[in-house]
Amino acid sequence: MTYDYARDHEHELSAEYLYASDAEVLGIYDSDNALQVDVAVICPECSETLRLETTVDKVTSSGTELPLDEDYYD
Question: Are 4 and 14 in contact (CB under 8 A)?
Fold first, then answer.
């Protein structure tokens, strides 16, 4: 892959190729009266690190215990 391709690539992401084990939470904070979460992932097409910014729309209870065990991802 060339540098120009990686720089000009549009990074059209699909959940099919993204894995929780390949993501890292960068920050959780308030923004415009909403909870904002920033996550770093690797683009599956060009391997560039991407920053995803999302607003929390819904909060529900979870049966997951923290910290997450590595077996959770297997």
Answer: no
pTM of the model: 0.67
Do the strands 34-42 and 49-55 form a parallel or antiparallel pair, or are they unpaired? antiparallel
Q: Per the structure block, which two tokens stand in for 23?
A: 């993501």
User: For all residues of the chain together, what is the average pLDDT?
Assistant: 82
Hey, what long-range contacts does 47-54 have (CB within 8 A, 24 or more apart)? 47/1, 47/6, 48/6, 48/9, 48/11, 50/11, 50/13, 51/26, 52/13
Q: What is the mean pLDDT of residues 54-62?
A: 91
